[in-house]
Amino acid sequence: MLTLGIDVSKLTLDCYLSEGIEKKARHSCKFQMSNSEAGFKELAQNLAKRGIGIEQMTIVLEPTSQYHKALLYWLYEHKARACMVNPADVRHFAKSLGKYSKSDGLDCFVLAQFAQTRELITWQPPARIIQNLDSLLHLRHQIVVERGAAQVRLSELPSDSLQTVKDCYSKTLEHFKAMEKEVNHEIQKLIDSDVSLKQKHKLLQTSPGIGPVVASLMLVIFETKQFTKSCQVPAFCGVTPKEFQSGTSVLGQTRMTKRGPAQVRAGLRMAATAIVRSKRRSTLKVFYESLLAKGKSKACALGAVMRKITLVAYAIWRDSNAFNGFVS
């Protein structure tokens, strides 16, 4: 199988062309071009000189901030099969090959070999409204982080600090609060502009703990990922348990895998916390209490509720049915 591993950076694309399983990278299969429209065309020309059409192969790359997006859309427009992979998976795969170093030239080789050993899902561009919603949610996350930092800096100021310093920090905090409010309004406005999206967003909020922000985050995941089983959702969000046990001597604590976007897990944690603190009993709260009764720690039980929330949210989105699991 022809595979092309591309290590993306801000300025360059390091590529490795592979025709099968290889133990060592061949210099003749490596090439580099710029991360630009001209570089993309040069990539196609380089492959054409080797007698290969860009649509004949599997091209694999990792997400790198925003630097990979232009290439992804260019490959899609030119009928190429592009696949996005989890960087952590690729790193573990590299170690299994005995590759402990990290460089652009080595990474593209590992990516090409990774594609030779996996069944990968072809990337499909999300709808424009989902792209815009995802961008707004990322912006909101950055604002919330900055707002929290500003809050900490203000609270840590000594009581005898200059009033000018206090005023400056206070204005910075208020600025981020205003920005967060504005972005929240734009997110809701965007969702309301699409009848189907608005309905699903409203249905997701019928689940306990899920508010507008978490519902928006889950919408982006469901609308962009091609899940075939419900168990794939918590796995993607990184809230599935990871055991560490061997024989009778190694009994490590079970933890979450923490794969996928951190902002989604942060939202799920807030949703789970809201459920266990709520006075209104739901099947999710009963589930949490049953785990505590069995001797599970609060952290473990809370993680299990986070996983349940993803399953409930996926069922709501898939079936277009409101949550009805309230006990009292």
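That was protein one. Protein two is written in the same sequence-then-structure order:
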Amino acid sequence: IDIHINAGETIGIIGGTGCGKSSFVNLISRLYDVKGGSVCVGGIDVRDYDLETLRNEVSVVLQKNVLFSGTILDNLRWGDENATLDEIKEACSIACVDEFIDRLPGGFDAEMGQEGVNVSGGQKQRICIARAILKKPKVLILDDSTSAVDTATDAKIKKAFATKIPGTTKIIVSQRISSIQDADRILVLENGCVSGFDTHENLVENNKVYREIYEVQTQGGGDFDEAGE
């Protein structure tokens, strides 16, 4: 793999199970270290950063993130304990948390069960995205973290990313082409190697791996959610 991502770009990543999508993004926040070559953020090898500094600048939202006992506000402020209510509302607007927060008893003060058992999978993912945005990271990584969000809401979140946090570099790992097709560029991985790195339109036309995924999802009954909301 030898690629360069520009600051502020939105990059999609797609490929079959086990192709290396999560391993690739985990190298950026140093959950793993490379055994050869280097991964640089801002032109600096990630191994030369103070680890806490690096992870404050690189926010990762996983498919199954952790929510804690306490209120929704407590969980959101884990992203930034000093965030103002206006900042929290803005992050919640970007992540479409505002679409359901008022329906919960107490709103932001609603008590969360352990691991968020009293909210749906899609709602939990949106709370985790809002929490990550509150960190104001330079790089925001979503590792299949809208898999339980319906496609219409997913599209709203990605549109808000483009307009509300344009300076943040956004790296979106997804099994759904609909989640990444509007990205500036899409990285197609196959067996740990780059199969393609281009726009959606060019990949559909020129990349066999991507075109096969696209045809399965568009002609075989649409894209697939791992869990409905």
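Confidence is low (pLDDT under 50) at residues 222-229. Keep this in mind for the problem set.
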